Amino acid sequence: MKTNNMSTRDEKRWQAIVSRELEIGDPFFYGVLTTGIYCRPGCSARSPNRENVVFFETPGEAEQQGYRPCRKCRPDQQRVSQDRETLIIKACRRLERERSPVSLEALAEQAGLSPSYFHRLFKKIVGITPRQYYLKHRSDRFRHMLADGSAVAEAIYSAGFESLSGAYNRNDDRLAMTPKNYRKGAEGMQIVYGTATCYLGSVLVAATVRGVCAVELGDSEEQVYANLCSMFPKASLDRGAPQFQKLVKAVIHHLDNPFERCELPLDIQGTSFQQKVWSALRTIEPGNTSSYSEIAGQLGTPAAVRAVAGACAANRIAVLIPCHRVLTKDKNISGYRWGKQRKKLLLDKEKK
Ligand SMILES: [Zn+2]
Q: What is the CA(184)–ligand 1 centre distance, in A?
């Protein structure tokens, strides 16, 4: 039997096991004589007695001596850094969900780490302490609405655009102080959608907490939904609760009454050039039309005709951003993302 001399290094390793630290700058594994199982530091299994612990440099060494890998910490698989991020992201999610503060001890226990190590690791990965993270979220009213998903439309509908953009700016701050790693794990946007039919066929209206992010037109509900999926492949898409239909109806009302002003908040996402083009499109009154070269001239980039046409084709918000009001130089209906026939119907309706 191997005896455990209490060298300084072994003592440090032993402390790491007790405090469940994942990394002490000295990669090692440990076996437990009584169970014949070996673990990696940070394992959430019960701490063994010091006298039963044997240290190894590699999993291979442990297995050579007859130890089996622990099922909890899987020391035979390489995934230490992945694990740490996952643990912290889990904790972030919990802090986002909870309506009352969660103690550091509770968070650490869930992660299977010591409170002090958990605290340090959280700060290293997220950039702020768990408590700061929690407070940040509590102060963010819209974040809570997002947790509900269905409340998004209600928020857009009942809140003025001013307050919406104010809330978003606070959100921006939060994202700015969260490192890339977290954002990657935090997935993409949350989008709520609803469908209806109108004189143009099937309509799908999608919104984020900022406003309408897509209006899709098509021949069937399946088609408009498929288009939404390909537009936002990484977002989480949820069908809106019944009250979301209010927003859908507001869009349909605008389709039927193009001369009424549309005050719906839009969440416009694109390059700065695209955004300029889309803003210019929104200045074209119903009944009027423009051309790609006119808009290029308006933006002070007369040569950018093709780029303007590209930006029109990239518009995701049908009708509310009226790219259908752009024609070729000789007033012909050129391409339209949702079909030339629909473009013609829209323009006919807007004829004075
Ligand atoms: Zn283990």
A: 28
Within a domain: residue 266?
no
**CA pair distance 122, 111, nearest whole angstrom:** 11
Task: Report pLDDT for 250.
Answer: 86
Q: Which of 70, 73, 312, 323 is catalytic?
A: 323
- 163-179 as b/e, with b when 16 or more CB fall inside 10 Å? ebeebeeebeebeeebe
Sign of CA dihedral 148, 153, 158, 163: positive
> What separation in Å is there between the alpha carbon of 39 and the centre of ligand 1?
4
Is 73 tagged catalytic?
Answer: no
Extract the residue ranges of the chain whose pLDDT is less than 50.
1-4, 141-144, 146-151, 153, 157-187
Total domains in the fold of the chain:
4
pLDDT at 165: 38
Model pTM above 0.70:
no
Tell how far the Cα of 205 is from the centroid of ligand 1, in angstroms.
49
Judgement on whether residues 154 and 249 belong to the same structural domain of the protein: yes
Q: How far is the CA of 17 from the centre of ligand 1 (A)?
A: 10
- How much is the pLDDT for 237? 79
Domain of residue 179: give its range. 144-256
**Residue that the structure tokens 């030339």 belong to:** 340
**Catalytic annotation present for 323:** yes
Residues 276, 322: one domain? Answer: yes
Q: β-strand 68-69 against 190-198: which pairing, if any?
A: unpaired
Q: For residue 18, how far is its CA from the centre of ligand 1 (angstroms)? A: 12
Answer whether residue 18 is part of any domain: yes
**Which CATH number do you get for residue 291?**
1.10.10.10
Q: What CA–CA distance (Å, rounded) separates 246 from 265? A: 14
Question: Any alpha helices (H) in 139-210, and if so which ranges?
Answer: 141-148, 151-158, 161-176, 180-185
Q: Which of 39, 43, 73, 312 is catalytic?
A: 39
Contacts of 140 (CB under 8 A, 6+ apart): 167, 170, 171, 174
Report in angstroms the alpha-carbon separations of 220 from 125, 202, 270, 342.
Answer: 45, 5, 27, 14
Cα of 181 from ligand 1 centre, angstroms: 26
